[in-house]
Amino acid sequence: MSTLEIRDLHVSVETENGPVQILHGVNLTVNSGQTHAIMGPNGSGKSTLAYALAGHPKYTVTSGSLTLDGEDLLEMTPDERARAGMFLAMQYPVEVPGVSVSNFLRSAKTAIDGEAPKLRTWVKDVKTAMDNLRIDPEFSERDLNTGFSGGEKKRHEILQLELLNPTFAVLDETDSGLDIDALRIVSDGVNRFSSGGDKGVLLITHYTRILRYIKPDFVHVFVGGKVAEEGGPELAEKLEEHGYADYVGEGAAV
Amino acid sequence: MSTATETPAQHGLAAHSHGAGTKSVKGALDRFASFDVADHSVPHGREEEWRFVPMSRLRGLHDDAALDGSDYTVAVDVDPRVTATSVGADDSRKGSSTYVPVDRPSARAWAAAEKTFTVDIPRDEIIERPSVIRLTGTSADRGAAGHLVITAGRHSKSVVVIEYDGSSSFVENVEVVAEDGAELTVVAVQDWADDAVHLAHHHVHVGRDATVKHAVITFGGDLVRNGTTLNYAGPGGDATLLGLYYADAGQFIENRLVVDHNTPNAKSDVEYKGALQGKSAHAVWVGDVLIRKEATGINTYELNRNLVLTDGARADSVPNLEIETGEIEGAGHASATGRFDDEQLFYLRARGIPEDLARKLVVRGFFASLINRIGVPEIKDRLMTTVERELAVAEELAAEAAGDA
Ligand SMILES: Nc1ncnc2c1ncn2[C@@H]1O[C@H](COP(=O)(O)OP(=O)(O)OP(=O)(O)O)[C@@H](O)[C@H]1O
Ligand SMILES: [Mg+2]
């Protein structure tokens, strides 16, 4: 079993007007085998948490700790974190012109595994994963994320998730911008990933609809840069009915 | 009317707005043009068009230095249906693009060129294989003048590649005429030796419903200055102007473009990308777009991106847009100069790719995406090989800098 532990995490972001504190003490423990949903209103700091986990250079951890099986993630560069088993499916995947999807996937797989994948099985694995996610094979030769529609970008994040097969997946609003068919396709991908072994999922979302397809074990309500309430799946239903109104006052006070 | 100024949000780099910061391009566009050399006074470097140029390195080509040199050879490799030949200076094709020299070197070359080199693609012919004209300079001692006219006949489809290498002090005019409905790609590759000076003016004349892709790629030379002007012979023209430059230590590369939207329902899309490395490498890009009153329903976009790979290099980037009609489909421009795109690097690193390799992928991608847009497979590999050679220098410089620190 693996454990991702977030303790009293305070994070600030670099802006043009200097650093701004966004996270004010986040506590969260994710064990492999579990799916945690993080839900919260716009601007509550969900993506900031995701970026801090992945080691984005714009986000600075001002205090608190972040460990993966006791190893200090804060000491690791973004690529070291990925090689240690972390994966972030981004809310807004970045376009990288001139780097083909196939070249990128092969480079990432080689980096994660420490050796180049065997050509024949790799080609087959990519094809299967693309088929499962209904991605047209010709996307292999396209520039990474460049000119992809919002939904296509999200499907490619899950394609990478399946092919790179990390221990912990942080999915930042992978559901937003997907129509109902795409939502199902993407959810199936996430479920394939988690059923493939001892995996942990941190599912960041604004809406409850993805939770019909991906069942969380725990739900955390994120407001004003910290966890405002947590519970089981029933908490999501409460949010579905009442929205975030109950929490926003509290968030403003933070 | 919609005008958009944007730099993709992910780059987080500066875009220019059309507000107070935009200066009028009237002066540049309505600038004086004349065939008579005497009408063009000798520039001294303070003039708007010359303000970036290290005048002392022009070898007097802008002044009165002789342009009677002939230290170069021309090799031609074209499909049998294409005519590529040297004709007299009085040939009627000279001037058929409507171009009138806009500066003194251009006027001097116009007057001095004893011959006109013509490339003709016959009407209705579809010619897959690129026509290649290669000019090899053998000495930079004496100024030389050239004149080239490329004419793509009605509804023809073809690719013309003009390659330059060796040593030269070369001043030239290139006229590109795409007749109605023609589809023409012209690629100029300036792969000069270190001592070359090249002052080129290209004028592109886009026929009714014609599609022109024009690309200028600059690797070598001590000083290379390209003026590119473009106008339309009728409505419905579609122009793509691409550029790639790689300035090394001490090199000066300037590209000045003027797209003159003088007809309705035309399109222009400009993308110039450059990389700079080494001490006093200097690249200048000035892109002017004029949308005249009659140019209703047009669409234009221009983009310049510079990748500054080491300290001590300088990139100037000046997009200008002047709009005289409200009835356009879209107009926008963006300019960005920086080191690496941090968001791109982060994305690759978040997938486990080590920083070194992530940088390599991003930088190669920067060039590859433009080379892919040129869309001439026959030269793609060679261009990428040259880019690799240049990048090896950058990586050495970076390693040295790291060693010094
Ligand atoms: N790079 C940044 N520069 C400036 N402000 C930032 C930056 N990143 C985050 N912020 C600010 O931090 C706060 C939290 O942003 P974050 O993106 O983490 O929220 P979120 O919960 O993911 O929102 P959403 O539901 O809209 O995705 C917001 O007020 C946002 O404006
Ligand atoms: Mg977010």
From TrEMBL, chain A:
SMART domains in UniProt: AAA (SM00382)
Swiss-Prot/TrEMBL keywords: ATP-binding, Nucleotide-binding
InterPro entries: AAA+_ATPase, ABC_transporter-like_ATP-bd, FeS-cluster_ATPase_SufC, P-loop_NTPase
Signal peptide start and end residues: none
Sample GO molecular function, one term: ATP hydrolysis activity
Domain of life, source organism: Bacteria
Short name of any one Pfam family annotated for the protein: ABC_tran
Domain ABC transporter, chain residue ranges per copy: 4-249
Sequence similarity: Belongs to the ABC transporter superfamily. Ycf16 family.
Annotated protein name in UniProt: Fe-S cluster assembly ATPase SufC
Lineage: Bacteria, Bacillati, Actinomycetota, Actinomycetes, Jiangellales
From TrEMBL, chain B:
Superkingdom of source: Bacteria
Pfam families, sorted: SUFBD_core
GO biological process: iron-sulfur cluster assembly
SUPFAM superfamilies registered for this protein in UniProt: Stabilizer of iron transporter SufD
Domain SUF system FeS cluster assembly SufBD core: 138-366
Coiled-coil annotated spans: none
UniProt cross-references to InterPro entries, sorted A to Z: Fe-S_cluster_assembly_SufBD, SUF_FeS_clus_asmbl_SufBD_core, SUF_FeS_clus_asmbl_SufBD_sf, SUF_FeS_clus_asmbl_SufD
Location of the region described as Disordered in the Swiss-Prot/TrEMBL record: 1-21
Family named by the database record: Belongs to the iron-sulfur cluster assembly SufBD family.
Record's protein name: Fe-S cluster assembly protein SufD
Taxonomic source organism: Phytoactinopolyspora halotolerans
